[in-house]
Amino acid sequence: MPAEKSASQSHEFKPQPWRDRRMEVILGNLLRTGVMFSAAVVLWGACIYLYRHWHETADYKIFRGEPSDYRSIPGVIQSVLGGHGRGWIQLGLLLLIATPIVRVAFSIVGFSIERDRLYVGFTCVVLAILLYSLLGSGFTF
Amino acid sequence: MTIPIFTLVVAVVSFAAGLLGSLTGLGGGVVLVPLLTIFFHVDIRYAIGASLVSVIATSSGAAAAYVKEGISNIRIGMFLEMATTSGALLGAFLATWMPVRVIAIIFGAVLLYSAYISRRPRSEAQRSLPPDPLATRLRLNGGFHDLEGHRTYNVQNVPTGFSLMFGAGTLSGLLGIGSGAVKVLAMDQAMRIPFKVSTTTSNFMIGVTAAASAGVYLSRGYVDPGLSMPVMLGVLAGSLLGTRILVKAETASLRLVFSIVILVLGLQMLYKGIWGNL
Asked: Among A117, A119, B59, B230, which is 20 to 30 Å from B44 by CA?
């Protein structure tokens, strides 16, 4: 107990502030760039979508579920190649979802550099859940 | 409404929600779903899908601004993300079979709770609590600089906080919101993390949590491009503007107005869920 107390008084707690800090700055910029890039893709899709559907009526009263083109990664890519605005929007949204996932993946590298095995393990658990959600929860390849 | 007008109106409303949400720190996502379902007659499942996407955008977009302050604790964040992401996955699966009326009632209850918690004074930051053995072993304790110099903190009640964060994740996945109100309960009240640290850390976590349920929503066809586009762009623009002007703005009266809006929307969601048709 006394040892712990003196440690906290001299501010030698476990996480090394400057290393964590540098990692955070990198991750923060990564997130920002990812969001801006995906917003640009969504905006581009919006232009095509609005141009093509200018005179149609918006109706979201009844839930039908999206067609398979907008539910799966291959479907979205197919739709983008076909030049569909909705496909581009969906691609932008996929990139947006991927951004925090990439952040988590990068954290594994950061914790490995710090030789923090416990947190490498924790981060792997989080990454596995995220990948399962995106790839394993009903996407068809 | 024709598509261009619908898109424009939804974008403007989302912009306002994002702006108010970031200025008040209450998050924009919590008002979006009720606004879309009550005033635009959007099916609640489409509304949740669109809101979830906007939650990721605001969380990740604000991250760079929060990083400048340099007080978030990435270990607390990653540790609790295990709870929030698994909760979010559960919530997203629950959403696919739960009747929409039940979802609306839960939503209403969460809104009322958020309005209540936003009016409560924040409990002042902990001072020199003894270190908790589990928190020490998990290396959750930390320190930061503020006006009074360097301050250290010792995280408390780790199991309670972890369980509450699982609940926060479930609500986030079920309702498509950031569920900041539950996070306040878990991180500030239970774990006694200083307010500054918990706010910035939870911002990081919200994006990851939302991404965990977004995959399920997308693959189930709940994310409509035509609806999500104006919501995501509007909320993102609004919240980015909000973080820019945050320093100058008078937020106390704004918080009051926004919590009244949340209260009214909560009552309407409850009414719709119990008596109305969705």
From this structure: B59
CA B173 to chain centre: 11
Whether A86 is in a domain gets the answer: yes
pLDDT tens-digit readout, A59-103: 888 887 788 778 888 888 888 898 889 999 999 999 999 999 998
Residue-wise pLDDT tens digits, B118-152: 777 666 555 668 888 888 888 888 887 777 777 78
**Residue A114 Cα, gap to closest chain B Cα (Å):** 12
Interface of B with A in 193-212 (CB under 8 A): 207-208, 210-212
Residue A117 in any domain: the answer is yes
Please answer whether residues B263 and B33 qualify as being in contact, where contact means their C-beta atoms are separated by less than 8 angstroms.
no
A122: in domain? yes
Tell me how many domains chain B contains: 1
ipTM score: 0.89
Pairing of strands B149-153, B142-146: antiparallel
Domains in chain A: how many in total? Answer: 1
User: Global pTM?
Assistant: 0.87
Say whether B215 and A97 touch across the interface (CB within 8 A).
yes
A118 neighbourhood in chain B, CB within 8 Å:
138-139
